[in-house]
Amino acid sequence: MKELKALNKYLIKYKGRLILGVFFIICANWFNLYPAKIFRTAIDTVIESLNTYNMVEGSFIQKDIYDELVMSLLLFGAALIGLALIKGVFTFFMRYTIIMVSRFIEFDLKNDIYNKYQQLDTSFYKMNKTGDIMNRIGDDVSKVRMYVGPSIMYLINLIVLFAFVITTMVNINPELSLYILLPLPVMSVTIYYVSRLINVKSERVQNQLSRIFSLSQETFAGIRVIKAYNKSEDTIQNFNEESKQYKDTAMDLVKTESLFHPIILFLPVLSTLITIYVGGLEVIKGTITYGNIGEFVIYINLLTWPVASLGWVTSLIQRAVTSQKRINEFLKTEPKIQSNNPIPIDIVGNVEFKNVSFTYPESGIRALKNISFSIKPGKTLAIVGKTGSGKSTIIQLLNRMYDCNTGEIFVDNQNIESINLNSLRNQTGCVPQEVFLFSDTISNNISFGTFGNEEKSNTEKVIWAAKQAAVHENIINFEDGYKTKVGERGITLSGGQKQRISVARAILKNPNILIFDDCLSAVDTETEEEILGNLKSIMVDKTTIIVSHRISTIQHADQIIMIDNGEIIEQGTHKELIDLNKNYNNLYKKQLFEQ
Ligand SMILES: Nc1ncnc2c1ncn2[C@@H]1O[C@H](COP(=O)(O)OP(=O)(O)O)[C@@H](O)[C@H]1O
Ligand SMILES: [Mg+2]
Predict the structure, then answer these.
(1) In a domain? residue 339
(2) Residue 337 lies in a domain
(3) Scanning 48, 137, 186, 201, which has its CA 20 to 30 A from the CA of 107?
(4) Last residue of a domain, one of 457, 476, 510
(5) What are phi and psi of 485, to 5 degrees?
(6) Residue numbers of the domain that contains 545
(7) Cα–Cα distance, 564 to 582 (Å, whole number)
């Protein structure tokens, strides 16, 4: 239960509403008791009147007694309806206040979790499956909500009702009360076990359902490959197998659920029988009236659902504990990449790597060994090397997606770990190797990196950036131009178009450090040259890092480093490296030949 303590701060936040809710629960239950009392009086009145009626057989007052009885029965009926209405109003407000609190808490919790997600670094996302991450904010929060909402409401309701009903019953006849109440705990415990079984089984159904979801999602994402390789039959068979599995688990759940109702129905019936039998004996002894029996039967009915719900609520709370435990564990995770400096700075663009080595924590792959280089502001550095040689890793370290293990990275002669993280990222514009476009308009995708809405709406700048990235012509050929939606439900762009939009995004951001990580690989050489030509004027006062495997892309860089297997093997200008007549020169010749 201690896991749920984390929720207290939210409960305290909404304590006003909760107290109001408890007040409504008390009122609703208070009015719940009266119908039983009226019922008792009604029965006793009828029996008394009938006795008198029979005694005065043949007398003229018989009609008066009859009229009086009808009148009082009508009054009792009206009172019952009135009470039901009042109770209804309070029940409405009770649910309205408490369930509303649970929705507020759900909202707060989801926001807190989402904020945490935004703080956590890339290695968190590498280590946790997307499904789990989604579950925290979806499923787990829902289960916790069932605790702060229904569970708390039913528990308080049960306590209040018990206090009221049992004091009333014991006041009338303690012995009879004891007999009647005996089957109820049995019911509660049984329901607890049955609902636990139901939970386990419905979890299985849920898991199978998410398998089907992931399977379908992957199928839809890879539909082109599936069709091209003629694998539709296999996919259908896979799906059928998973569906059958789902059906079987669901049927299993149905069987258990069918047990639930007979149990709930059987035990109260037992209590009712005891009431009538033992109550009958008491009436013969004269300790209670006929009306009391009726009254007790109503009390049993009043208690049935709350007691039944006790078992259910217990299993809800157990589930909430497990979910909250997962949420707590994750809320306690501290991002490894911390901003150690609250003071924002302006970055000029001096970059230096000093003996940097790095091993990926998740895979243990040693991606960089002893890397050293430096770039002056306004200069261009190019990195070439085979795939997997560590080029993107250098970029990730410079962006502080990871922190290096040994060695140091300096920006403007400050260790990047001591620079305000937001400043660092705000003032670097990185075009990653894997382009990502949001399901939004092209124009919003390009202006993604700019700040404030004022700039966002500045279409002139967006068009300028698109022109620099040589993608403007493509965009205006789309029917909706810059308002064209891309991504899911939007149009599908070619690899090269996506890359150029991504380049435009970085250009528009106007950072002091520009990084292109192999981001023109899908663009033809001619367009690439056009873009590089445009960039020349943009890059004059910026530090630029260009990663590429094409010599044509990088030959004009002020400095080129060639890396292999995480190590710098050659370093210099294009001319120097050609003159060196080693790896770089070989690559150059090979590419010239291919061309
Ligand atoms: N996120 C990661 N987790 C674990 N290993 C990685 C990760 N990214 C890259 N690597 C490994 O690090 C090495 C260098 O990769 P990378 O820097 O992406 O190479 P390049 O960009 O030169 O193609 C490769 O062996 C790759 O498998
Ligand atoms: Mg790469």
Answers:
(1) no
(2) no
(3) 201
(4) 510
(5) -85, 140
(6) 345-427+511-595
(7) 13
Q: Are residues 137 and 261 in the same domain?
A: yes
Instruction: Examine residue 51 and state whether it is found in any structural domain, yes or no.
Output: yes
* 127 CB near ligand 1 (under 6 Å): no
Strand partners, 517: 547
- Under 8 Å between Cβ of 443 and 455: no
Segments in 222-289 forming alpha helices (H): 223-228, 232-285
What is the layout of strands, in order, in the sheet containing 513-517?
Answer: 428-431, 513-517, 543-547, 380-384, 559-564, 567-572
In terms of domains, do 486 and 382 share one? no
Instruction: Determine whether the shortest distance from the Cβ of 362 to ligand 1 is under 6 A.
Output: yes
Q: Which amino acid residue places its CA nearest to atom 12 of ligand 1?
A: 367
Residues 151 and 258 in one domain: yes
- Mean pLDDT by 10-residue block, N- to C-terminus, for the chain (595 residues)? 87 93 92 89 91 85 88 93 93 92 94 91 82 81 90 91 91 88 82 84 85 85 90 93 95 88 80 90 91 90 83 84 88 86 90 94 90 93 92 93 93 93 91 89 89 65 91 91 82 87 91 90 85 86 90 89 94 93 91 82
Q: How many Cα atoms sit within 13 Å of 500 on the Cβ side?
A: 29
Give the Cα separation of 572 and 562 in Å (integer). 9
Its pTM stands at: 0.78
pLDDT at 38: 92
* Side chain identity at residue 146, one-letter code: M
**pLDDT recorded at residue 506:** 92
> Is 397 found in the same domain as 417?
yes
Backbone angles phi, psi at 506, to 5 degrees: -70, -40
Tell me which amino acid residue 371 is. Answer: I
pLDDT of amino acid 107: 95
Minimum CA distance residue for ligand 1 atom 17: 390
| 448 & 399 share domain | no
Q: Any idea which ligand is nearest the CA of 516?
A: 2
127-177 pLDDT tens trace: 877 777 887 888 889 999 999 888 989 999 999 998 999 999 999 889 888
Is residue 409 included in any domain, yes or no? yes
Query: What would the two tokens of residue 227 be?
Result: 């069709």
* End residue of a domain, out of 271, 299, 332: 332
Query: What does the buried/exposed string (b/e) look like for 391-421 if buried means 16 or more CB atoms within 10 Å of the residue's CB?
Result: bbbbbbbbbbbbebeebebbbbeeebbebbb
CB distance 360 to ligand 1 below 6 Å: yes
Number of domains in the chain: 3
User: Which helix (DSSP H) or strand (DSSP E) does residue 550 occupy?
Assistant: none
